[in-house]
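Re-running Glyoxylase, beta-lactamase superfamily II to confirm reproducibility after the cluster update. Everything else is unchanged from the original entry.
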Amino acid sequence: MSSGTEIKVECKLFRTGYCRQLEKMARRDAPLRPASFYSLAALIRHPEEGLILFDTGYSAHFFRETSRLPYLLYRWAVPVVFRKEEALAEQLKALGISPGEIRHIFLSHFHGDHIGGVRDFPEASILCSREAYDHIREMRGLRAVRNGFVPGLLPPDFDKRVQFIEDKERFPFRERYGVFDPVFDCFGDGSLLAVRLSGHAPGQYGLFFVDEERGPTLLCADATWSLEALRRQVEPHPLTFAVMGGRREFRRSFLQLTEFHRLNPSVRIFPSHCPEAAALAEGVKG
Ligand SMILES: [Zn+2]
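Result of re-run:
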């Protein structure tokens, strides 16, 4: 078994567009006004495994695949502001990284704003939870839309490229950090640990690692929408659960995350739609 997380990685966050939504949906005590929720993705450089993505954000595929009903309903429900140069693949090209250099993509869950860019990286293996994939894999039409899933965003060879988190070695994370179980060791070297944060979507996983610059870091996906909500322990508005479902599971993960933050205050936590995290992220200017 691997001995710990001493392998450090580099991590860069990217903004890939944003949606407009009532702030109250994300934090029940927030004012009733629209706010921008950025969709973040991350590029991780592992010393041996090379370049890895955590989620992929919005992309041109997202707009093509949601241009007709029923998938257009997704865009009506969640209006998105996006310019094509904000696609993760385009931002990486601007940094001199070609799509073919991405070796792995870690998908936290299958909502459209997280899997939007997968098809831009045809060479990458895909790492996701079997639990999450089994939940959506047969979904089409309205049922898919209601679950935030747009089937055409997944590449046709997905089944050939996928590896499941649950097939990786278990990592004794709770012994060290006091919370979260199960946690899986993505590469068997303790460097990237997949943390189960089910609830916002069934089988959602976050990613824990030690960043060269920021130290221990948890990309917690949508287990909370903001650090503010986490610090003050304010849950989303009840209406959010009417759309999203899984309130009990969400609350369980949210409480675990709160507890994790309390026990390990030095660990940086980045929720995928948090304004504070977005402020630290790379993005297209102007
Ligand atoms: Zn989501």
